[in-house]
Amino acid sequence: MRVSSWPSTAEVNAVKERVVQMSGGNIGDVRIVVSPYRICPLGAHIDHQGGIVSAMTINKGIILGFIPSDDGQIILQSGQFDGDVRFKVDVSQLPRSSTAAQENGASKSCNKELDWGCYARGAVYALQRRGFHLDKGIIGFICGSDGLDSSGLSSSAAVGVAYLLALENANSLIVSQTDNIELDRLIENEYLGLRNGILDQSAVLLSKYGCLMRMNCKTKEHNLVRLFEMEGNQRINGHGAYKILLAFSGLKHALANNPGYNSRVSECQEAARLLLCASGDEDVEPLLCNVDPSTYEAHKVGVPSCFIMLIPWLVVASLRLCYILIIGWIRAKSSKKSKALLYRKFSG
What is the DSSP string of 281-335? Predict the structure, then answer.
């Protein structure tokens, strides 16, 4: 199987040319940030409940070309959306749900057609919130892989991370991957008001080629699982290359505009609260990761069905991840004979 290279030289050069047109600078001065999209075998509504998730990045995503601006101006254009985004880094950014922000004309939601620059403003907000001083802005052009924005591949996290990395580079800031995961959380949770977890930006920042990233969202510990040992296009130890199938429903939506997501977060927390209170653990943080299976079995009859249906789904999803990791380890380490025996053991 031929592994396609992303981004291609042509894609990078096209972005650089747009930045030169915008800034009047030299093409050699244009800096590039590449921020990939991700898939997650296990993730939906598990990360914000402190569960164990898995993800890996793919060879599609965001390209952001930029030149630092000494006057602190941020000027952005997009390959997907019309209009320019313009603001200064020395202006304090406020959460979009705040009264002051609404009085200044910011809407509660991030309307991608009218204000696609909300993630750039959110990146400035996050850096300001953590005490980073920004002197320089950026003149930049951002674009995503065709047709994949708002399609469930965490394009929003890729965009947020791209803006953070560009602003940090322009201002000579040294920021760790762990801190950038937290900064992107501030963009989503505080600036935009979306109550999601840390899976998406963790996948963007921590993934490695050929590996599945596994993270405990409660402890924030992670490790990389290499399911297949591959070298180029060659088969090694009898294992062939693999492909990822993306099945697009044709429907797009941005989570920041979807109130149903925050409602599901509240439902998960309410289910956890009811179970913990029933077991005498009302002081424990109401997250489903803090509910023992024995607590669930003992007290599930007292929890409304609309909430209780969430718990077994999360448990089954976690078991699915364990199965994936076990079979991947078996395929990577075992002989053909032992693989067959172990497979029957775990599947039977």
Answer: -TTS---GGGS-HHHHHHHGGGS-HHHHTHHHHHHHHHHHHHHHHHHHHHHHH--
